[in-house]
Every structure is written in structure tokens, then in C-alpha cells.
Design goal:
With 155 residues, the protein is of the alpha+beta class. It contains 5 helices and 7 strands, in the order E-H-H-H-E-E-E-H-E-H-E-E. It binds coenzyme A.
Length: 155
Amino acid sequence: MSSVSVSRIREEEIPACARIMAENSLWQHYDVTYESALARFQNGYAEQATIFIAHEGEEVCGFCWVAEKGAFNRSAYIMLIGVDPLRQSRGIGKILLEETEKYLATKSVDVFLTVSDFNKGAQKFYSGMGYKTVGEIPDYVKPGITEIIMRKVLR
Ligand SMILES: CC(C)(COP(=O)(O)OP(=O)(O)OC[C@H]1O[C@@H](n2cnc3c(N)ncnc32)[C@H](O)[C@@H]1OP(=O)(O)O)[C@@H](O)C(=O)NCCC(=O)NCCS
């Protein structure tokens, strides 16, 4: 793997993020299309959302979208993290999340996220990164899917 760098999103990177989101089978469960993902990233960018991008060389290979006080208007919240399906399990997500956490640690003592009950791979990824399950919300984003709530103390 060539070196991975992480920086804030630039406008021209929005289509690559939408493609990564639309091509991940996870979000196909939530009926995400390229067009809906594109609109979501365009709106987020316009609202100056905090979105980090992982690059491998010059190419966009992942994104992590966070809200500094997105959990209970108190703690940081990871809204979305995704790596290009063709480049998963090569250490990119770990670098992306570590860099995002360094930033969040300047804003919050802890960070929360939710992960789908069926998404065992992401649950293992988060456990390995130090996240602990603290609860669950049945039928939250979509009927029939339970969102597992995870938390990590950053400092
Ligand atoms: C979850 C995701 C962001 C992880 O990124 P990644 O680049 O594939 O993960 P990494 O290669 O950095 O893996 C880091 C660690 O997590 C583990 N891990 C990652 N994906 C895993 C999986 N599917 N199953 C088991 N372990 C996994 C790795 O084994 C690795 O462990 P190690 O450090 O002990 O070797 C990425 O796979 C992805 O985009 N998945 C689809 C979208 C998604 O589920 N997002 C999360 C929504 S809540």
C-alpha cells in the first residue's frame, strides 16, 4: 500500500465520496444510490460539515464524516465512515479513524457511533479500535435493523 494521508474534504472530492458510499453494500441496505449520496455530500459540504478524506497517493480511498457535538449535543459522533470496497482490509480505515480521533480529541472527551446489527465486520473493526458497546436502538434508521451504539473515551 502506498502511503495514506488524511485531510479535510475538497469540493472536487465529493463525487468520489458518493461513489464509495453507493458502491458499499452496507448502504445499499439503506437504499442509498449514487445520486442520493452525492446530494448528501454536496449538502454537507455546503454546510461546512467536518468530513475527512483518506488519500492513497492522489486518489480518494475513504471518508469519515463527524459531528463534533453530534451525540446528545455533548459528545463527538461519527456519522459515516467508508473505505473504497476495492481497498478495504488494507489498513486505510484504521489510519482514517485514528486521524479523525486525533481531531475529535481536541473537541470532546469521548466519541459515539452507531453500527448496524448485521454489520459484523465493522463491529470487529470498531472493537479493535477500542470502542465498547453501550446500547442499541431497534428499528431506528430502518425497520427491522437494530443500530448498536458504541463509545470510546478519547482522553
Ligand atoms: C469498516 C471499514 C471502514 C474498515 O476500513 P478498512 O480499511 O476495511 O479496515 P482496516 O483494514 O483499516 O482494518 C483495521 C482493523 O479492523 C479489522 N477489520 C476491518 N474490517 C473487518 C472485517 N470486515 N471483519 C473483521 N475485521 C475487520 C482488521 O482486521 C484490522 O485489524 P488489525 O489492525 O488487527 O489487523 C471498511 O471496511 C468499510 O468501509 N466498510 C463498509 C462501510 C461500513 O461498514 N462502514 C461502517 C459503518 S458503521
